[in-house]
Write a structure and sequence with these properties.
Blueprint: H1 5-15, H2 17-55, E1 59-62, H3 68-74, E2 81-82, H4 85-88, E3 95-108, E4 111-118, E5 141-144, H5 146-152, E6 159-162, E7 165-172, E8 183-187, H6 188-194, E9 200-201, E10 203-208, H7 218-226, E11 234-237, H8 239-281, H9 283-291, H10 296-334, H11 344-361, H12 363-370, H13 374-377
Parallel strand pairs: 4-8, 5-7
Antiparallel strand pairs: 1-10, 1-11, 2-9, 3-4, 3-10, 5-8, 6-7
Helix pairs in contact: 1-10, 2-8, 2-10, 8-12, 10-11, 10-12
């Protein structure tokens, strides 16, 4: 009476459970490392994005009248541009997290500060994202840089008169050693009203979107896409900030590209070696099966099905392991922020592809098993 393939595989794995368990652990470890590496790469990019955000946005869009040489000296735009341009800029793929601003040098008493009106952050293609620029100011309030607070004699919670209008000092920032120290931040509508420039902007800041390694001149690529949208606008790329973010992201991508395949290949070699050893240990048993009338394809299927089951169980265990410990491990490495969740598509692809890869790794041992000569193994004449 023949036994089903499922029963044969189950009996074989229960009889050789230590070997099967070793193989499951190897597959689980490989899957967990792949998933953790992918999660680490995404978390590393997010951490870099937060660092670059805190340092400053790396793309500046200026009115067409701006002299870029003069802007680099005093960082003050010339002229203005329609506020509606911020809506046009949502329909492009090279700059994200767009922050509309109105910037001007104003006198406060005997001192001069850089008044900076800031609007709500906008996202390309209408994406819904958590704002990251980091300044939310109430209408009628101002936030002062450290030096601006000092030269104006302002105090938190007290009024500050700017161009004959009184504002409440919401906060005075700690020194940063940058131009931020001389800025006075307020809402964009307050700045537009104060400067009599309703509906106008003179600066839009953003973060450069992904540029692949084959893009030799990121600034030219940005200008090529933005020029038709905001004709004549001056576009500045803060190269040091943008290049650092780009280099870090590309490093993470190369890590995935070059580190993961050898890891998978090593796991496949180990699975194939274990399958090969299992076949050698069970040659006599396979000879018995063939002698009892089982087809060679059935014997080969036992070996392949065993590796498939090991791959499936190992993939599930590795996935659970990566999900359970991923947050704590990645957070301890990155040091800040909650790491992104593993992509559900990646998880499904891993669970479906791992058993297939394991079965392919056991293909040669399966062919060996099917080629066993039962007469020679049983020493028949």
């Amino acid at each position: 009476m023949s036994i089903s393939l499922t029963t044969l595989v189950g009996r074989e794995m229960s009889l050789r459970w230590i070997t099967a368990l070793h193989a499951v652990f190897i597959v689980a470890a490989a899957v967990a490392m792949v998933l953790l590496a992918e999660q680490f790469a995404a978390a590393s990019e997010n951490a870099t994005r937060r660092i670059q955000r805190d340092i400053g946005l790396n793309i500046v869009i200026l009115p067409p009248q701006t002299d870029l040489d003069a802007w680099w000296i005093d960082r003050l735009p010339t002229g203005s541009m329609p506020e509606a341009w911020i809506e046009r800029l949502e329909d492009q793929d090279v700059a994200n997290r767009l922050v509309p601003m109105l910037v001007a040098r104003v006198a406060v008493g005997d001192a001069e500060i850089i008044l900076t009106g800031i609007g709500s952050e906008r996202f390309k293609r209408g994406n819904a994202m958590k704002p990251v620029f980091g300044r939310s100011i109430e209408p009628g309030n101002v936030v002062l840089g450290a030096l601006a607070g000092k030269v104006t004699g302002a105090r938190e919670g007290e009024p500050l008169v700017i161009k004959s209008r009184s504002f409440t000092v919401e906060r005075i920032l700690e020194p940063t050693g940058s131009e931020e120290d001389v800025r006075c931040w307020m809402t964009l509508p307050d700045a537009q009203s104060l400067l009599q420039l309703e509906g106008r902007l003179n600066e839009i800041r953003a973060i450069e979107c992904h540029c692949s390694e084959d893009v030799q001149d990121p600034l030219e690529a940005i200008r090529t896409e933005l020029e038709p949208i905001v004709p004549g606008a001056g576009i500045v790329r803060m190269n040091a900030l943008a290049d650092a973010r780009r280099a870090q992201r590309q490093m993470a991508e190369r890590f995935i590209e070059y580190a993961i395949p050898p890891l998978l290949a090593l796991a496949g070699v180990i699975i194939a070696a274990l399958a090969f050893m299992n076949v050698r240990e069970r040659r006599n048993e396979m000879g018995v099966l063939l002698a009892h009338g089982y087809r060679r394809s059935t014997v080969a299927s036992v070996v392949l099905s065993r590796s498939f089951m090991i791959g499936l169980v190992g993939a599930v265990i590795g996935w659970v392991f990566a999900v359970v410990i991923g947050d704590s491990v990645i957070t301890s490495i990155i040091g800040s922020g909650k790491p992104p969740r593993l992509d559900s598509t990646l998880l499904l692809a891993t669970i479906f592809s791992t058993p297939i890869l394991c079965a392919l790794a056991a293909l040669y041992p399966a062919i060996m098993a099917a080629m066993v000569d039962p007469a020679r193994l049983m020493r028949l004449p």
